[in-house]
Amino acid sequence: MASKKEIWFATSNAHKVMEAQAYLKTVNIVIHQAKIDVKEIQSPFLEEIATFKAKYAFERTKKPIIAEDAGLFIEALNGFPGPYSSYVYKTLGCEGILKLLTGIEERKAFFKAVIAYTEDGDDVKIFVGKVDGKISRKIRGTMGFGFDPIFIPHGFSKTFAQDSVTKDAISHRRRAFEAFATWFHDQMGHV
Amino acid sequence: MASKKEIWFATSNAHKVMEAQAYLKTVNIVIHQAKIDVKEIQSPFLEEIATFKAKYAFERTKKPIIAEDAGLFIEALNGFPGPYSSYVYKTLGCEGILKLLTGIEERKAFFKAVIAYTEDGDDVKIFVGKVDGKISRKIRGTMGFGFDPIFIPHGFSKTFAQDSVTKDAISHRRRAFEAFATWFHDQMGHV
User: Fold this and answer.
1) Residues near B45 by beta carbon (within 8 Å), at least 6 away in sequence
2) Is residue A56 classed as helix, strand or coil in its secondary structure?
3) Does A79 touch chain B if contact means CB atoms closer than 8 Å?
4) Which of A 88-107 lie inside 8 A of B, CB atoms?
């Protein structure tokens, strides 16, 4: 069996590192946390934000590194809150989103996560995970975080905050990490 | 009379450069546009965004340089949309803000502009301009841009979009540039 590959994850959130380690159990990767104050740029594109973050983090660590960004995109609101989901959650909360959708029947939305990975600070690989769904009429459930209590994934009737098992199984972040794991596996030619 | 000092303004908007030149007519400054694709970071603080921008722009120009950032801060919405005003205007528009304030009596808000100036990329001076007011009940007026049609400055009854003369006289951006001009004047010891 080949030796494990070590990569770093630029995040201040230790929980995300553990989660990533679990998602990557099919590949020979050990993930370490790179606790650096990563500047996020403003952009409507998660891909651009994650790429900038990964390059910025590589400059400081000189290690193979992952950066991640995610957001909730609501069709009737032109993609809002998108890359600013965290700020919008802090200022408007789930209540604000429901208020913005008052009287709007079309409630399609998706969660999207983007992982950017670089080994040299120059060539950046992008992996995307997405989960389609809709915005609920009411806040429901207490599990998870952020906009989970108002997001119902396609094919289900409960919100992410009411059903963490489903969330864990189909989440955008898991899907992005799975795409990364698949690529990594092919790349290395072994499991 | 002393020779004019040349400074650069990092912005893709030529109109802002002309406007700045007009605001700085009391001081011996010639402003040039530095058309660089300046990355804006995500932060709840305009000061941090403008500082990062000015340093970033200095690295690329090696000239005395100004960067600016501005936003609308609504008290009842915990400062939303703040530094993300431009993105929020594009996605939600004035209508979205009015919808978020439905049923809310407390409509206090302010426009704030921050100018960051650096001559060496290290020492950054910050100048702030602010105009207090409230959010109107309806969209009114067609002048100006962005959230002007829903902002009524304190002591007035018309929105910025209904009264561009008042806007021009008391705007946050003008006030920030006036603060810069005062400092600059003191600094140089002449007019």
Assistant:
1) B83
2) helix
3) yes
4) 88, 90-92, 96, 99-100, 102
For B145-189, write each residue's pLDDT tens digit. 899 999 999 999 999 999 999 999 999 999 999 999 999 888 876
> What would the pLDDT profile of A84-128 be if each residue is shown by its tens digit?
999 999 999 999 999 999 999 999 999 999 999 999 999 999 999
State the Cα torsion A74-A80-A85-A87 to the nearest 10°.
Answer: -150
Give the sign of the dihedral formed by CA B172, CA B178, CA B182, CA B187.
Answer: positive
Contact assignment for A41 to B44 by CB distance below 8 Å: no
- At A191, the pLDDT band (50, 70, 90 cuts) reads very low
pLDDT greater than 60 at residue B86: yes
- Closest B-chain CA to A91: B78
Tell me what ipTM this predicted complex has. Answer: 0.85
- pLDDT mean across residues, chain B: 93
Single pTM value for the model:
0.89
Q: In this predicted structure, what is the pLDDT of residue B25?
A: 80
Determine the Cα–Cα distance for residues A167 and A148; give it in Å rounded to an integer: 9
CATH number of A5-188: 3.90.950.10
From A40, A82, A99, residue closest to B102, measured CB to CB: A99
